[in-house]
Amino acid sequence: MTYIERKKYVIYSSTAFLTGFVLYGILGLFIFFNPDLIEQWTFLQRSLMLMGIGIVGGYLISSLLSGILLFSHYTQKKSTRFKVVMIVLFMITVQVIAIVGFVLNLPMYIVNLLHVLRRRQIIEK
Description:
The protein is an all-alpha fold.
């Protein structure tokens, strides 16, 4: 990947994570203020649950976007025959995109972030 592609990947993944965190955090607020749980759980337990729901939601959205970005980058240079087979087997393709996104989201984000930061430090010197 080029520097610009890495930078875009970091920006897109970060934005997707923040969006998922906010959306799922809003859903977690309904559980946070649930009257049944207020009596059973402490404030700390409900707060940690709210943060956990937000983090998992952010990772979900970021992983799906990451899978789409990585898979589209992978298929750019593939033959037309391969692309036709992917279209015919679209259910398997969707599962592969989701699995690749969940497995490679965090490692690819860290690697791309380190490359972007290293390049930025080299340019500043």
